[in-house]
Amino acid sequence: MSIEFDNNLPIYLQIMNHIKRQIVSGLLQPGDKIPSVRELAADLQINPNTIQRTFQELEREEVVETKRGLGRYVTSEGSKIMAIKKEMAGDLIHQFIHGMQELGFKNQDIVTIVKEAVAVKDNTDRKGASPDGHIAEG
Amino acid sequence: MSIEFDNNLPIYLQIMNHIKRQIVSGLLQPGDKIPSVRELAADLQINPNTIQRTFQELEREEVVETKRGLGRYVTSEGSKIMAIKKEMAGDLIHQFIHGMQELGFKNQDIVTIVKEAVAVKDNTDRKGASPDGHIAEG
DNA sequence: ACTAGTGTTATAGTTGAATAGTACACTAGG
DNA sequence: CCTAGTGTACTATTCAACTATAACACTAGT
Predict the structure, then answer these.
(1) Which of A2, A41, A53, B78 could serve as a FRET partner for B107 with CA atoms 20 to 30 Å apart?
(2) Partner B contacted by A113 (CB < 8 A)
(3) What span, in angstroms and rounded, lies between the C-alpha atoms of B53 and B46?
(4) What pLDDT digit, counting tens, does each position of A58-85 carry?
(5) Range(s) for CATH 1.10.10.10 in chain B?
(6) CB–CB of A95 and B100 under 8 A?
(7) pLDDT of B86-112, one tens digit each?
(8) Between the CA of B62 and the C1' of D2, what is the distance in angstroms?
(9) Does B78 touch chain A (CB under 8 A)?
(10) CA atoms of B122 and A52, how far apart (whole Å)
């Protein structure tokens, strides 16, 4: 595992989101064992206390379950994972649409821009073409 | 002016983005005077030093211009403002699409979800109806 | 028992954001 | 000249994130 860190957001939150994404995307399945505190700390070159805090937060959100002396595991409750996924997606959507509206874009513009963006992404996926990042004017 | 602050991001960055949004959306026009350090500090109940840092960063990005002893003004260069707008929109789009893909959504899903979201928004705008936050499954 | 690997707790120190307070420099206007 | 309002600079302090290090508790396997 490797994460590109953003200095403007606490590390423990970034690692939290990283793990939650791995879970809701299916990369980590319900019941799967997640790395130990010391293992992940060494892997990410982060202090074990910071990882411990990350895991405590994940447990507070019921995303992982702890078996003392054994390790931590992804919650086996699929409904909880689905709820987390909806919450994370909802946050992304709200942040995006609200942000675009604040920049002066209208709803119709926003839909158009998203269509263009994923179209460019599809092209790069298929042909490896270089996108120019063009954005429709608001 | 009033801003709802997020504790996980430095205040000076949040105020920066707030002002940049006001500029690129046209709420603040090129050449407009922006609040003084002390005025904005009192208005937002924030320490003047923090506001000073905010403005210094905005000046470094050439978003505002300083006339010592007089005040600060929105840059008169429309091209610079347009560039900032594209940059901010591009960041939002990338963050959104990349984030949704990490959650396991396909490009087609993403377009559909955005259409639904703005449709709900339009309904609330017109009729004041209560949205249920429904999201299509990935 | 012993060991290795796990989670847990605790203390101390470093760093950067934010605050509090003060003082200085520049500009316009009376 | 003097005042009010502006930007600028500096020191000291508080607080949270993060680090460094160590110790303790639990579990499985030998």
Answers:
(1) A2
(2) yes
(3) 12
(4) 999 999 999 999 999 999 999 999 999 9
(5) 11-78
(6) no
(7) 999 999 999 999 999 999 999 999 999
(8) 35
(9) no
(10) 44
Does domain A11-79 match CATH 3.50.50.60? no
CB < 8 Å to B126, chain A: none
CATH 1.10.1060.10, applies to B11-78: no
Report how far residue B84's alpha carbon sits from residue B89's, in angstroms, rounded to the nearest whole number: 8
The answer to whether A48 CB sits below 7 Å from nucleic acid chain D is yes
The tens digit of pLDDT for each residue in B20-72 reads 999 999 999 999 999 999 999 999 999 999 999 999 999 999 999 999 999 99
- Nearest Cα residue to A105 out of A135, A81, A132: A135
- Pairs of residues, one from chain A and one from chain B, whose beta carbons lie less than 8 Å apart: 105
Which residue ranges in chain A fall short of pLDDT 70? 1, 121, 125-138
Q: Do A89 and B135 touch (CB under 8 A)?
A: yes
